[in-house]
Structure formats: C-alpha cells, structure tokens
Design goal:
elongated
Length: 107
Amino acid sequence: MDRLNGASAAETPRPRAVVHSPCTAAHPFCSSSFRCCSLLSAENQDEAGKRRDELLWPIFRLHHQRSRYIYDMYYNQKKITREVYEFALEEKYADANLIAKWKKVST
C-alpha cells in the first residue's frame, strides 16, 4: 500500500505520455516523409502486449531514417551545405556517431 493515498502500486495506473498537437512548425528536416509528428505518434503508441525493448523500436527506426536522410543529402546528393549539416548535428537532428559509422570505408 502506498503510504500517501492508501492505494497499492498495482491499482495506480501508469502515467501516460503527453499527446502533442500535430506539427505546425517548419523544422529544417521536417519533410513529408520525415515528420516530427511521426516521432510523437511512435512515442504515444499502444504498449499492450509488447516487451519493453519493442516499444522503442519505432523510435530507433525513425531516428535512423532521419540520420540517413541527412547523411545522403550531404554526402551523396550534395543538396545541403556544410553549415546546414553541422546545424543538424549540433541540434541533434542527426546522430553524429551513426553517420561516422556510415562514412567508414568497409573492407
């Protein structure tokens, strides 16, 4: 039993994540295929019947896709400048360690 309100831990529901409104801000890397809203929907996904690590898979997938998109735009297609690329890394739009892994020449 909880000493404060007399309820047991099994009776008290877990707090749910805050549901945000759809993205209306124009983020630098918020395109039709990589919406920041899709990350929010992955966070607010139903967790019934899933293991704890399975709940994070959609978030990791979106994070990987967004990092790969920025990597391709800078290194392969040369569509963004170095300043935009560095901004994306500084603001954590892309994972610098993951991009460093892709930059390495495989043997």
